[in-house]
């Protein structure tokens, strides 16, 4: 690309600018309107209760007011000894032909004993029969009805099994006692048809349910820990926030020391590695078998064999020597660029100090991302529950209508009951045959795509706002006197007023790549069981390529947004100018990137590590001064991990602002070098420290 030329009218971020990428702005508005329409349609047709509440075999919600199930909030399968279920949805299947038509019934509570309907009826004890009736369909009231007819009409289950409630569902209460699988206190049970079955037949079906039950108990203990430690967790997060702020302030004074200490430590570690390899090489001299060459030894699965060869340690020593020499040569030739990177990092700390509100701006971006996530999640739930109840014909004997769709309201007067007297119209699943139901998968795809687009737009808005604010600091000739009164608010208003289209354009490109990656991950998940190695290899290559493409686009977008904030050009022009500017200074880019990456990693490690260690000693009662203050916990790792994760997010939020500041000042610095020469007509805008480092000064002015 062509270097930038001097422009006497350029004094920093351009205020007299026009709207850019209007077409993309219109597309974004139309897409948001369509997204709102999809949400309204989903909210109109969807019913999240299908996810939360169980239903009976007629598709009625358990515990729903105004229905016979109003006082029956739980669901159970009375007929089938084979049960499989997970929270939020439950599917009952029976491997036995006697239960080819399983039924779900809403109950007020789960059964707590073994009992069959035949035994309850034959004993003629009102208590047992009355107890059994609460597990029958609500319409069943005639306790004198012939038991064969009751079981044939599926008014009541053939048997009851001791069950445990979980997510409003009843699952067999399976437990192990001295290695023996039991349900209740028995290892066998009567299936209600005169056959004894082993409780292990229930094990496979209820295994997942028991895992979830244990998970729920674990979740309850974790919740208890949060209730007694939440204020200490908040104190830990406040400490992390203060530590992050102090670290950013200290970077102004200690950035150079940190970088050079890191460089010296790397050189010393490599030097020790060379010394250790030489000592091992010398120690093996004269030992039997140590002089065998690597080629003669060949490949060995036990890698420890190679450590007994002198040639191995010689190779290690040569490699480390080469790396050491390369690093030293790079330091000699790139020392000035490293000093520039350190100076820019110090300058970024000053810029953040003059625009302290920038440290709070990530909260705005976080709020917008939370809105995107909440809208996407709620729309996805409503779309997935938009299906209607589908009823099908179930029967015990041969029937030509078996499996066909039916309507419960008109089923009793239809021809089906005449030809198939034992047929029943029962709830089968949720589905639908309308145009809306056929295109549900398309709407879900659109929901995912819009989530990525809007989330990337929110991130882009945050980046261009911070870039505009920090650019106004760099291009202020007299810092901070020439800065605008409210740089962050000015940059935010310019971004929304003029560059919504450009931000939407960059976010759209990134969203397309991310949707493709999600699709590839889905295909990879579906192909795990396949034996087509070529397809798996091709898919892995595509995943790798699109991962690299996403990283490159994020890098390009970030720098394009900086150019948009400064010059007000459209997205393509800004991306091209930023890319060419960076390519003209590729060495400086590489050095600055690695130096800042190290400092940010060091800062995050220092903050998260120190706060995490402090939390560990506090919650494990190892600090004697506050030993009695720490709350008693079921799992002390719960608040500790929460503090560690929260500290990392807080540190990441602070350093993301700092990183954007460094990148913005760096691009402005490169522009300054190309536009100006330090003369009275073309003075530099860089800080005195950078001028001194470059041995440059504004001609006609004393060197600061």
From TrEMBL:
It is a multi-pass membrane protein. The chain crosses the membrane at residues 21-43, 230-250, 257-275, 313-334, 355-377, 450-475, 496-516, 560-583, 595-619, 635-655. Pfam families: Choline_transpo. It is found in: Cell membrane; Mitochondrion outer membrane. One of its GO terms (cellular component) is plasma membrane. It comes from the Eukaryota. Its main location: membrane. Keywords: Antiport, Cell membrane, Glycoprotein, Membrane, Mitochondrion, Mitochondrion outer membrane, Phosphoprotein, Transmembrane, Transmembrane helix, Transport. It catalyses: choline(out) + n H(+)(in) = choline(in) + n H(+)(out); ethanolamine(out) + n H(+)(in) = ethanolamine(in) + n H(+)(out). GO terms for molecular function: antiporter activity. PANTHER family: CHOLINE TRANSPORTER-LIKE (SLC FAMILY 44) (PTHR12385), CHOLINE TRANSPORTER-LIKE PROTEIN 2 (PTHR12385:SF34). Choline transporter. Belongs to the CTL (choline transporter-like) family. This is Choline transporter-like protein. It comes from Atlantisia rogersi (Inaccessible Island rail). The gene is Slc44a2.
């Amino acid at each position: 690309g062509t270097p930038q030329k001097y422009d006497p009218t350029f004094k920093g971020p351009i205020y007299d600018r026009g709207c850019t990428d209007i077409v993309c702005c219109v597309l974004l508005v139309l897409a948001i309107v369509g997204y709102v329409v999809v949400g309204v349609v989903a909210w109109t047709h969807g019913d999240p209760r299908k996810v939360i509440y169980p239903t009976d075999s007629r598709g009625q919600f358990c515990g729903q007011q105004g229905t016979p199930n109003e006082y029956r909030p739980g669901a159970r399968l009375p007929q089938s000894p084979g049960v499989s279920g997970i929270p939020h949805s439950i599917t009952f299947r029976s491997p036995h032909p006697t239960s080819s038509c399983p039924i779900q019934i809403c109950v007020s509570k789960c059964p707590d004993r073994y009992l069959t309907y035949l035994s309850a009826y034959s004993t003629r004890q009102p208590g047992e029969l009355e107890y059994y009736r609460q597990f029958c369909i609500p319409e069943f009231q005639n306790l004198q009805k012939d038991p064969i007819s009751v079981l044939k009409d599926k008014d009541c289950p053939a048997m009851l099994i001791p069950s445990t409630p979980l997510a409003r569902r009843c699952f067999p209460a399976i437990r192990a006692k001295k290695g023996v699988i039991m349900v209740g206190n028995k290892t066998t049970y009567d299936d209600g048809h005169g056959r004894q079955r082993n409780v292990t037949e229930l094990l496979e079906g209820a295994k997942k349910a028991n895992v979830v039950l244990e998970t729920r108990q674990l979740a309850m203990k974790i919740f208890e820990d949060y209730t007694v430690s939440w204020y200490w967790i908040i104190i830990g997060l406040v400490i992390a926030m203060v530590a992050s702020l102090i670290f950013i302030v200290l970077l102004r004074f200690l950035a150079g020391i940190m970088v050079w200490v890191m460089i010296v430590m790397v050189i010393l570690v490599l030097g020790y590695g060379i010394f250790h390899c030489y000592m091992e090489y010398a120690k093996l001299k004269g030992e039997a078998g140590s002089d065998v060459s690597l080629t003669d030894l060949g490949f060995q699965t036990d890698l420890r064999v190679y450590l007994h060869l002198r040639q191995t340690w010689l190779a290690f020593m040569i490699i480390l020597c080469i790396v050491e020499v390369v690093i030293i040569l790079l330091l000699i030739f790139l020392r000035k660029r490293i000093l520039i990177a350190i100076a820019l990092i110090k300058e970024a700390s000053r810029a953040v100090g003059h625009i302290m509100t920038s440290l709070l701006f990530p909260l705005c971006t976080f709020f917008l991302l939370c809105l995107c996530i909440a809208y996407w999640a709620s729309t996805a739930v409503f779309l997935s529950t938009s299906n209607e109840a589908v009823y099908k014909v179930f029967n015990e004997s041969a029937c030509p209508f078996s499996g066909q769709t039916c309507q419960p309201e008109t089923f009793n007067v239809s021809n089906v009951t005449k030809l198939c007297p034992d047929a029943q119209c029962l709830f089968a699943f949720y589905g639908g045959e309308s145009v809306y139901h056929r295109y549900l998968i398309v709407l879900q795809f659109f929901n995912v795509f819009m989530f990525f687009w809007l989330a990337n737009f929110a991130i882009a808005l945050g980046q261009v706002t911070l870039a505009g604010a920090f650019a106004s600091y760099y291009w202020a000739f007299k810092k901070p006197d020439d800065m605008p009164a409210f740089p962050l608010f000015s940059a935010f208003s310019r971004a929304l007023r003029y560059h919504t289209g450009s931000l939407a354009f960059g976010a759209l490109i990134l969203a397309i790549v991310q949707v493709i990656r999600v699709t590839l991950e889905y295909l990879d998940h579906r192909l795990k069981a396949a034996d087509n190695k070529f397809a798996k290899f091709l898919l892995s290559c595509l995943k790798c390529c699109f991962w690299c493409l996403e990283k490159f686009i994020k890098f390009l977008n970030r720098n394009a947004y900086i150019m948009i904030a400064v010059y007000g050009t459209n997205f393509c022009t800004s991306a091209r100018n930023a890319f060419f500017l960076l390519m003209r200074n590729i060495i400086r880019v590489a050095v600055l990137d690695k130096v800042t990456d190290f400092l940010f990693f060091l800062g995050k490690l220092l903050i998260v590590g120190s706060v995490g260690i402090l939390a560990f000693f506090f919650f494990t009662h190892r600090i004697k001064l506050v030993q009695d203050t720490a709350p008693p916990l079921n799992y002390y790792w719960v608040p500790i991990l929460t503090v560690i994760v929260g500290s990392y997010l807080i540190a990441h939020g602070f350093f993301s602002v700092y990183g954007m500041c460094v990148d913005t000042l760096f691009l402005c610095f490169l522009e300054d070098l190309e536009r100006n020469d330090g003369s009275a007509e073309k003075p530099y805008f860089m800080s005195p420290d950078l001028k001194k480092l470059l041995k440059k000064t504004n001609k006609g002015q004393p060197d600061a």
